[in-house]
Amino acid sequence: MTDKAQDDIGSSGKSVALEARETAEDGRRYSPSAARNKDVLADVIAANMPVAGHILEIASGTGEHGAHFVSRFPSLQWSYTDLDEMSLASQRAWARLAEGAERLHGPLKVDASQDHWGEAENPSTYDGLFCANMIHIAPFAAARGLLTGAGRLLRTGGRLMLYGPFAREGQIAPSNARFSEDLQRRDPDWGVRDLDLDIVPIAEAASLCLFDVIEMPANNLSVIFEKIKK
Ligand SMILES: C[S@@+](CC[C@H](N)C(=O)[O-])C[C@H]1O[C@@H](n2cnc3c(N)ncnc32)[C@H](O)[C@@H]1O
Fold first, then answer.
1. Which of 204, 41, 206, 54 is nearest to 128 (CA)?
2. Ligand 1 pocket, CB under 6 A
């Protein structure tokens, strides 16, 4: 289990990720977990997400995922967002320096828990929304806001992809149960959510239909929703 001393502490003084991250001289930050999962996530995107349109990422963190995906998918436009200033600074550096930088937009400051996402608020326009590893490391209001925001901003037929650890119908893998307890020790409002009991009902109320659930390494899931006509 990650030692709290190794957390990545964001601009507010709180942990934004449960891992130590490096910052290069050019301002780009590097996350060990993103280095491990970016290729398998790109494979899921290739099979399940629009790769010739515009994807809005919520909670982009270091910005490595978007940079990796635009280099793999040459017709993809990607917009970075985050709440945390330190993460926004890294995304700014990736949007300047990455291969395919002309297709990396933002970053925009977005707090997923709010019901208006500022400059990112372009209803019914995005082909996809992507959010990795936020909803267990934020109060549940962030998950709720993410799902209602996706319902508001995706075009009909657009897709939302979530990635991270989840419980299913009240069952949780032992490693995820230990992880959730660790998260709740750090902040009682954090914790691993139940896909079927906590997430799907809010998604359905936001016109998002569960499209696919893909098992990923280390007991994580990729979850795909599709925006249906109201
Ligand atoms: C564990 S990091 C994940 C970063 C990146 N998506 C990844 O997988 O490497 C969690 C991110 O969620 C962001 N975050 C937390 N609460 C948020 C909120 N309410 N709205 C938007 N972003 C939030 C943090 O600033 C941080 O960048």
1. 54
2. 10, 16-17, 31, 33-34, 58-61, 82-84, 87, 110-113, 132-134, 137-138, 142
Q: Whose CA is nearest to atom 1 of ligand 1?
A: 17
Closest CA to 111 of 182, 12, 221, 4: 12
CA 57 to ligand 1 centroid distance, Å: 10
pLDDT digits (tens, 9 = 90+) for 9-66: 888 888 888 888 889 999 999 999 999 999 999 999 999 999 999 999 999 999 999 9
- CA nearest neighbour of 183 among 164, 198, 169: 164
pLDDT tens, residue by residue, 97-126: 999 999 999 999 999 999 999 999 998 899
Select 4-227's CATH number: 3.40.50.150, 3.30.360.10, 1.10.10.60, 3.40.50.970: 3.40.50.150
Delimit the domains of the chain by residue range. Answer: 4-227
Q: Has this prediction a pTM greater than 0.85?
A: yes
- Centre of ligand 1 to C-alpha 89, Å, is 14
For ligand 1, the distance from its centroid to the CA atom of residue 103, given in whole angstroms, is 21
Q: Is the peptide bond before 188 cis (omega within 30 degrees of 0)?
A: no
